[in-house]
From TrEMBL:
It comes from Bizionia paragorgiae. This is Uncharacterized protein. The chain crosses the membrane at residues 127-146. The lineage of its organism: Bacteria, Pseudomonadati, Bacteroidota, Flavobacteriia, Flavobacteriales. Residues 155-182 form a coiled coil. Keywords: Coiled coil, Membrane, Transmembrane, Transmembrane helix.
């Protein structure tokens, strides 16, 4: 014959104790009786420890009396309502879920901090390069702007060439006009000579 060992949580064990106390009504039940009847896989010290935990709850779900010689429990009016609302098992599950959520949040925060650290390292490595390029670009744009405001050498050379060409053109015009006047004077002189003949 094989003995099956029931694996139950602390909350389930405390709920079993309270349910057994409810079945027995106003009768006082000892830790020894609980250990013998419903929790044979636990030692009497473990059952007494569960009695202490039930006694230390803030809801005062049962009357628990603990002395050197015995641990006794009696169900109260709150015991039935507490069991109907889920008992210690429900609060144990809620606590476990909260712990899981907290652990998940801490894991996510840890991963986020790793990503933030990588990003900060990347920013630190690239910031000075980008900053340097920005300074160089700004300096070049200021240089180009100031150069565009002052006349360049090419413009000055072109202006000088234009002035030379204009002066040569004026000289040419004067020489042409002088040549015409000379021609006109000579033609009149020639005409007067022809008339005299």
């Amino acid at each position: 014959m094989t003995d099956e060992i029931k694996i139950i949580t602390e909350g389930q064990a405390k709920d079993l104790i309270l349910e057994y106390a409810l079945k027995n009504g106003d009768k006082t039940i000892s830790a020894h009786e609980i250990q013998k009847e419903i929790l044979p896989e636990l030692s009497s010290d473990e059952v007494e420890f569960l009695f202490e935990k039930i006694q230390n709850t803030t809801d005062n779900v049962a009357d628990v009396a603990i002395s050197e010689y015995a641990c006794l429990i009696t169900a109260t009016g709150i015991t039935k309502r507490f069991i109907e609302q889920g008992g210690f098992t429900k609060s144990e599950k809620e606590t476990a879920e909260l712990k899981e959520k907290k652990a998940e949040k801490e894991r996510i925060d840890f991963e986020k901090s790793i990503i933030d650290l990588r990003l900060k390292k990347w920013q630190l490595k690239t910031f000075w390069w980008i900053f340097g390029f920005a300074i160089i670009g700004s300096a070049l744009s200021v240089y180009n702007f100031t150069n565009s405001l002052s006349p360049s050498k090419n413009v000055k050379q072109q202006e000088e060439r234009i002035e030379k060409m204009e002066s040569e053109l004026e000289k040419l015009q004067t020489s042409i006009s002088n040549g015409k006047t000379l021609d006109s004077l000579q033609t009149t002189k020639d005409l007067t000579e022809i008339e005299k003949k």
